[in-house]
Amino acid sequence: MTDNAEALLIGRLFGxxxxxxxxxxxxxxxxxxxxxxxxxxDTAARFRAVAVGMVGSGHVSTVAVNSDFLDxxxxxxxxxxxxxxxDHIDVTAAFDRGITITNTPxxxxxxxxxxxxxxxxxxVRQLPQADRFLRAGRWPGGMFPLTGTLRGKRxxxxxxGRIGKAVAKRAEPFGLEIIYHGRNRQPDVSYAYAxxxxxxxxxxxxxxxxxxxxxxxxxxxxxxxxxALGPExxxxxxxxxxxxxxxxxISALENKIIGAAGLDAFxxxxxxxxxxxxxxxxxxxxxxxxxxxxxxxxxxxxxxxxLQQWNKGLTVSNPVYPxxxx
Length: 326
Fold this sequence. Notes:
- By secondary structure, this protein is an alpha/beta fold.
- The chain has 2 domains: 6-106 and 293-320, 3-Layer(aba) Sandwich (Rossmann fold); 109-284, NAD(P)-binding Rossmann-like Domain (Rossmann fold).
- It has 13 helices and 13 strands.
- The protein has helices at residues 17-24, 33-37, 41-44, 67-71, 91-96, 109-125, 127-135, 162-171, 197-203, 223-229, 246-254, 274-277, 293-311; strands spanning 6-10, 26-30, 47-52, 78-81, 100-102, 154-158, 177-181, 192-193, 206-209, 234-237, 260-263, 282-284, 319-320.
- Strands 8-7-6-9-10-11-12 form a 7-stranded parallel sheet, with helices on both faces.
- It is elongated and about 65 Å long.
Protein backbone atom coordinates (compact mmCIF):
# COMPACT_ATOMS: atom_id res chain seq x y z
CA MET A 1 0.00 0.00 0.00
CA THR A 2 1.05 3.62 -0.40
CA ASP A 3 0.59 6.64 1.79
CA ASN A 4 -1.04 8.65 -0.99
CA ALA A 5 -3.88 6.26 -1.82
CA GLU A 6 -7.18 7.98 -2.53
CA ALA A 7 -10.10 7.44 -0.15
CA LEU A 8 -13.70 8.58 0.01
CA LEU A 9 -15.41 9.52 3.28
CA ILE A 10 -19.20 9.32 3.18
CA GLY A 11 -20.70 11.32 6.03
CA ARG A 12 -18.51 12.34 8.92
CA LEU A 13 -16.26 10.99 11.64
CA PHE A 14 -15.86 12.53 15.08
CA GLY A 15 -12.87 14.11 16.75
CA UNK A 16 -9.24 13.64 15.72
CA UNK A 17 -9.77 10.72 13.28
CA UNK A 18 -11.31 13.10 10.72
CA UNK A 19 -7.98 14.97 10.49
CA UNK A 20 -5.94 11.78 10.76
CA UNK A 21 -7.76 10.34 7.76
CA UNK A 22 -6.97 13.37 5.61
CA UNK A 23 -3.28 12.98 6.45
CA UNK A 24 -3.23 9.26 5.68
CA UNK A 25 -5.06 9.51 2.32
CA UNK A 26 -5.83 11.94 -0.42
CA UNK A 27 -9.33 12.29 0.96
CA UNK A 28 -12.58 13.36 -0.62
CA UNK A 29 -15.66 13.80 1.57
CA UNK A 30 -19.34 13.73 0.59
CA UNK A 31 -22.28 14.04 2.95
CA UNK A 32 -24.38 11.07 1.81
CA UNK A 33 -24.54 8.01 -0.45
CA UNK A 34 -26.32 9.86 -3.25
CA UNK A 35 -23.43 12.25 -3.99
CA UNK A 36 -21.02 9.32 -3.71
CA UNK A 37 -22.62 7.29 -6.50
CA UNK A 38 -23.01 10.45 -8.61
CA UNK A 39 -19.26 11.04 -8.81
CA UNK A 40 -17.83 10.93 -12.35
CA UNK A 41 -16.57 7.53 -13.49
CA ASP A 42 -12.94 8.60 -13.65
CA THR A 43 -13.14 10.01 -10.13
CA ALA A 44 -14.87 6.93 -8.68
CA ALA A 45 -12.25 4.67 -10.26
CA ARG A 46 -9.49 6.32 -8.24
CA PHE A 47 -10.82 5.34 -4.83
CA ARG A 48 -9.41 2.20 -3.24
CA ALA A 49 -10.88 2.85 0.21
CA VAL A 50 -14.24 4.10 1.43
CA ALA A 51 -15.05 5.13 4.99
CA VAL A 52 -18.73 5.24 5.94
CA GLY A 53 -19.21 7.63 8.84
CA MET A 54 -22.35 9.15 10.35
CA VAL A 55 -24.70 9.94 7.49
CA GLY A 56 -27.62 12.36 7.68
CA SER A 57 -29.70 11.88 10.81
CA GLY A 58 -27.92 8.69 11.87
CA HIS A 59 -28.62 5.07 11.02
CA VAL A 60 -29.20 4.19 7.35
CA SER A 61 -32.28 1.95 7.22
CA THR A 62 -31.79 0.65 3.67
CA VAL A 63 -28.98 -1.28 1.99
CA ALA A 64 -26.89 1.60 0.72
CA VAL A 65 -23.65 -0.21 -0.12
CA ASN A 66 -25.09 -2.74 -2.56
CA SER A 67 -23.94 -4.27 -5.85
CA ASP A 68 -24.76 -1.09 -7.79
CA PHE A 69 -22.76 1.02 -5.34
CA LEU A 70 -19.77 -1.33 -5.44
CA ASP A 71 -19.82 -1.43 -9.24
CA UNK A 72 -19.38 2.35 -9.27
CA UNK A 73 -15.96 1.91 -7.61
CA UNK A 74 -14.13 -0.72 -9.67
CA UNK A 75 -10.83 -0.42 -7.78
CA UNK A 76 -12.31 -0.45 -4.29
CA UNK A 77 -10.54 -2.72 -1.78
CA UNK A 78 -11.99 -1.81 1.61
CA UNK A 79 -15.14 -0.25 3.14
CA UNK A 80 -14.65 0.79 6.77
CA UNK A 81 -17.97 1.33 8.56
CA UNK A 82 -18.63 3.45 11.65
CA UNK A 83 -20.83 1.27 13.86
CA UNK A 84 -21.45 -2.37 14.64
CA UNK A 85 -24.50 -3.19 12.54
CA UNK A 86 -23.80 -3.70 8.84
CA ASP A 87 -27.37 -4.21 7.65
CA HIS A 88 -26.94 -1.25 5.27
CA ILE A 89 -23.97 -3.03 3.68
CA ASP A 90 -24.30 -5.98 1.28
CA VAL A 91 -21.41 -7.88 2.84
CA THR A 92 -21.83 -10.84 0.49
CA ALA A 93 -21.62 -8.63 -2.60
CA ALA A 94 -18.47 -7.03 -1.24
CA PHE A 95 -16.95 -10.40 -0.29
CA ASP A 96 -17.61 -11.76 -3.79
CA ARG A 97 -15.66 -8.82 -5.22
CA GLY A 98 -12.75 -9.31 -2.84
CA ILE A 99 -13.59 -6.13 -0.94
CA THR A 100 -12.94 -6.08 2.81
CA ILE A 101 -15.66 -4.77 5.12
CA THR A 102 -14.78 -3.61 8.63
CA ASN A 103 -16.91 -2.32 11.50
CA THR A 104 -16.30 -0.98 15.01
CA PRO A 105 -17.39 -3.58 17.60
CA UNK A 106 -16.72 -3.41 21.34
CA UNK A 107 -16.19 0.36 21.60
CA UNK A 108 -19.92 1.14 21.83
CA UNK A 109 -20.90 -1.82 24.03
CA UNK A 110 -20.94 -0.06 27.40
CA UNK A 111 -22.64 3.08 26.10
CA UNK A 112 -25.49 1.19 24.45
CA UNK A 113 -25.91 -0.99 27.55
CA UNK A 114 -26.17 2.16 29.68
CA UNK A 115 -28.83 3.53 27.35
CA UNK A 116 -30.71 0.23 27.44
CA UNK A 117 -30.83 0.25 31.22
CA UNK A 118 -31.86 3.89 31.28
CA UNK A 119 -34.68 3.09 28.89
CA UNK A 120 -35.73 0.11 30.98
CA UNK A 121 -36.03 2.23 34.10
CA UNK A 122 -37.67 5.13 32.26
CA UNK A 123 -40.28 2.87 30.67
CA VAL A 124 -41.20 0.77 33.71
CA ARG A 125 -41.15 3.67 36.20
CA GLN A 126 -42.57 6.20 33.69
CA LEU A 127 -39.87 8.77 34.43
CA PRO A 128 -40.42 10.99 31.35
CA GLN A 129 -44.17 10.99 32.05
CA ALA A 130 -43.53 12.02 35.65
CA ASP A 131 -41.27 14.83 34.46
CA ARG A 132 -44.00 16.11 32.12
CA PHE A 133 -46.56 15.79 34.92
CA LEU A 134 -44.52 18.06 37.18
CA ARG A 135 -43.65 20.60 34.46
CA ALA A 136 -47.31 20.88 33.50
CA GLY A 137 -48.10 22.05 37.05
CA ARG A 138 -50.24 19.02 37.82
CA TRP A 139 -48.56 17.95 41.09
CA PRO A 140 -50.52 20.36 43.34
CA GLY A 141 -53.68 18.68 42.06
CA GLY A 142 -52.66 15.22 43.21
CA MET A 143 -49.86 12.68 43.22
CA PHE A 144 -48.48 11.10 40.07
CA PRO A 145 -50.11 7.69 39.41
CA LEU A 146 -48.33 4.63 40.77
CA THR A 147 -46.12 2.85 38.25
CA GLY A 148 -44.80 -0.60 37.48
CA THR A 149 -41.84 -2.09 39.33
CA LEU A 150 -38.71 -4.15 38.72
CA ARG A 151 -39.33 -6.21 41.84
CA GLY A 152 -39.82 -9.87 41.03
CA LYS A 153 -39.57 -9.32 37.26
CA ARG A 154 -37.93 -11.39 34.54
CA UNK A 155 -35.84 -9.64 31.90
CA UNK A 156 -35.77 -11.55 28.64
CA UNK A 157 -32.81 -10.60 26.45
CA UNK A 158 -33.24 -11.44 22.79
CA UNK A 159 -29.63 -11.59 21.59
CA UNK A 160 -26.98 -12.21 24.25
CA GLY A 161 -24.01 -10.79 22.37
CA ARG A 162 -21.55 -8.19 23.65
CA ILE A 163 -24.24 -5.63 24.43
CA GLY A 164 -26.72 -8.21 25.73
CA LYS A 165 -24.18 -9.47 28.24
CA ALA A 166 -23.34 -5.92 29.30
CA VAL A 167 -27.05 -5.27 29.89
CA ALA A 168 -27.43 -8.48 31.88
CA LYS A 169 -24.46 -7.51 34.05
CA ARG A 170 -26.15 -4.19 34.85
CA ALA A 171 -29.57 -5.73 35.38
CA GLU A 172 -28.54 -8.34 37.94
CA PRO A 173 -27.90 -5.85 40.79
CA PHE A 174 -31.44 -4.54 40.23
CA GLY A 175 -32.73 -7.97 41.22
CA LEU A 176 -33.98 -8.87 37.76
CA GLU A 177 -33.98 -12.53 36.80
CA ILE A 178 -32.25 -12.91 33.44
CA ILE A 179 -33.35 -15.26 30.68
CA TYR A 180 -32.14 -15.13 27.09
CA HIS A 181 -32.44 -16.50 23.60
CA GLY A 182 -29.85 -16.45 20.84
CA ARG A 183 -28.70 -18.60 17.96
CA ASN A 184 -27.00 -20.94 20.41
CA ARG A 185 -26.99 -21.66 24.11
CA GLN A 186 -23.89 -20.07 25.66
CA PRO A 187 -22.05 -22.38 28.05
CA ASP A 188 -20.17 -19.55 29.78
CA VAL A 189 -23.27 -17.86 31.26
CA SER A 190 -25.52 -18.94 34.11
CA TYR A 191 -28.72 -17.36 32.80
CA ALA A 192 -31.65 -19.53 31.83
CA TYR A 193 -31.92 -20.23 28.11
CA ALA A 194 -35.20 -20.01 26.19
CA UNK A 195 -35.37 -22.40 23.24
CA UNK A 196 -37.02 -19.88 20.89
CA UNK A 197 -37.94 -16.19 20.68
CA UNK A 198 -41.55 -17.17 21.36
CA UNK A 199 -40.56 -19.12 24.47
CA UNK A 200 -38.59 -16.08 25.65
CA UNK A 201 -41.59 -13.78 25.15
CA UNK A 202 -43.84 -16.15 27.08
CA UNK A 203 -41.41 -16.30 30.00
CA UNK A 204 -40.39 -12.63 30.22
CA UNK A 205 -42.04 -9.65 31.88
CA UNK A 206 -39.70 -7.28 30.06
CA UNK A 207 -38.40 -8.22 26.60
CA UNK A 208 -35.27 -6.40 25.45
CA UNK A 209 -34.32 -6.76 21.78
CA UNK A 210 -30.58 -6.60 21.01
CA UNK A 211 -30.12 -8.51 17.74
CA UNK A 212 -28.61 -7.41 14.41
CA UNK A 213 -30.82 -6.01 11.68
CA UNK A 214 -31.16 -7.42 8.18
CA UNK A 215 -33.40 -9.88 6.38
CA UNK A 216 -32.76 -12.71 8.84
CA UNK A 217 -34.30 -10.79 11.76
CA UNK A 218 -36.85 -8.66 9.89
CA UNK A 219 -40.14 -8.56 11.89
CA UNK A 220 -38.76 -11.17 14.28
CA UNK A 221 -40.85 -9.60 17.03
CA UNK A 222 -44.29 -9.98 15.48
CA UNK A 223 -47.92 -9.93 16.63
CA UNK A 224 -47.72 -13.46 18.04
CA UNK A 225 -44.67 -12.65 20.14
CA UNK A 226 -46.26 -9.47 21.44
CA UNK A 227 -49.38 -11.39 22.43
CA ALA A 228 -47.16 -13.90 24.24
CA LEU A 229 -45.50 -11.06 26.16
CA GLY A 230 -48.90 -10.19 27.61
CA PRO A 231 -50.90 -7.17 28.79
CA GLU A 232 -48.43 -6.21 31.51
CA UNK A 233 -45.42 -6.92 29.35
CA UNK A 234 -42.85 -4.30 28.32
CA UNK A 235 -40.99 -4.31 25.01
CA UNK A 236 -37.65 -2.52 24.68
CA UNK A 237 -35.79 -2.22 21.37
CA UNK A 238 -32.19 -0.96 21.25
CA UNK A 239 -31.21 -2.76 18.05
CA UNK A 240 -32.78 -1.99 14.66
CA UNK A 241 -36.30 -0.86 13.86
CA UNK A 242 -36.69 -3.61 11.28
CA UNK A 243 -36.50 -6.29 13.98
CA UNK A 244 -39.93 -5.31 15.32
CA UNK A 245 -43.10 -5.43 13.21
CA UNK A 246 -43.95 -1.77 13.77
CA UNK A 247 -47.60 -2.04 12.68
CA UNK A 248 -48.12 -5.02 14.97
CA UNK A 249 -46.49 -3.12 17.84
CA ILE A 250 -48.76 -0.12 17.35
CA SER A 251 -51.79 -2.40 17.32
CA ALA A 252 -50.60 -4.25 20.43
CA LEU A 253 -50.13 -0.98 22.33
CA GLU A 254 -53.43 0.51 21.17
CA ASN A 255 -55.34 -2.63 22.16
CA LYS A 256 -53.48 -3.17 25.45
CA ILE A 257 -52.07 -6.49 24.25
CA ILE A 258 -48.81 -5.31 25.87
CA GLY A 259 -48.44 -2.68 28.56
CA ALA A 260 -45.65 -0.38 27.41
CA ALA A 261 -42.66 0.01 25.11
CA GLY A 262 -39.34 1.80 24.96
CA LEU A 263 -37.84 2.31 21.50
CA ASP A 264 -34.48 3.62 20.33
CA ALA A 265 -34.89 2.36 16.75
CA PHE A 266 -37.54 2.66 14.06
CA UNK A 267 -38.21 1.28 10.60
CA UNK A 268 -38.03 4.53 8.63
CA UNK A 269 -35.64 6.67 10.65
CA UNK A 270 -35.72 9.58 11.30
CA UNK A 271 -39.47 9.39 10.67
CA UNK A 272 -41.48 7.90 13.55
CA UNK A 273 -45.16 6.91 13.23
CA UNK A 274 -47.48 9.53 14.67
CA UNK A 275 -49.38 6.73 16.40
CA UNK A 276 -46.32 5.96 18.53
CA UNK A 277 -45.65 9.62 19.26
CA UNK A 278 -49.21 10.04 20.51
CA UNK A 279 -48.98 7.18 23.01
CA UNK A 280 -48.30 8.10 26.62
CA UNK A 281 -47.10 4.60 27.56
CA UNK A 282 -44.25 4.63 25.02
CA UNK A 283 -40.73 6.04 25.54
CA UNK A 284 -39.15 7.20 22.27
CA UNK A 285 -35.46 7.98 21.72
CA UNK A 286 -33.87 9.21 18.46
CA UNK A 287 -31.46 6.25 18.07
CA UNK A 288 -28.97 7.58 20.63
CA UNK A 289 -27.65 4.29 22.03
CA UNK A 290 -23.98 5.14 21.41
CA UNK A 291 -24.53 8.89 21.13
CA UNK A 292 -21.87 10.37 23.37
CA UNK A 293 -18.79 12.39 22.37
CA UNK A 294 -16.55 9.80 24.04
CA UNK A 295 -17.92 6.75 22.27
CA UNK A 296 -18.40 8.30 18.83
CA UNK A 297 -14.78 9.43 18.88
CA UNK A 298 -13.67 5.94 19.88
CA UNK A 299 -15.76 4.46 17.05
CA UNK A 300 -14.21 6.94 14.62
CA UNK A 301 -10.75 5.99 15.83
CA UNK A 302 -11.57 2.33 15.13
CA UNK A 303 -12.55 3.27 11.56
CA UNK A 304 -9.22 5.04 11.13
CA UNK A 305 -7.28 2.15 12.68
CA UNK A 306 -8.83 -0.37 10.29
CA LEU A 307 -7.98 1.83 7.30
CA GLN A 308 -4.46 2.45 8.54
CA GLN A 309 -3.88 -1.30 8.97
CA TRP A 310 -5.14 -1.95 5.44
CA ASN A 311 -2.96 0.86 4.07
CA LYS A 312 0.10 -0.74 5.66
CA GLY A 313 -0.77 -4.15 4.27
CA LEU A 314 -1.62 -5.53 7.70
CA THR A 315 -4.58 -7.68 8.72
CA VAL A 316 -7.47 -5.43 9.73
CA SER A 317 -8.73 -5.72 13.30
CA ASN A 318 -12.46 -5.89 12.65
CA PRO A 319 -13.33 -7.72 9.42
CA VAL A 320 -16.98 -8.58 8.75
CA TYR A 321 -17.87 -11.74 6.82
CA PRO A 322 -21.09 -12.87 5.12
CA UNK A 323 -23.54 -14.30 7.63
CA UNK A 324 -21.58 -12.95 10.59
CA UNK A 325 -23.80 -11.92 13.51
CA UNK A 326 -22.72 -8.40 14.39
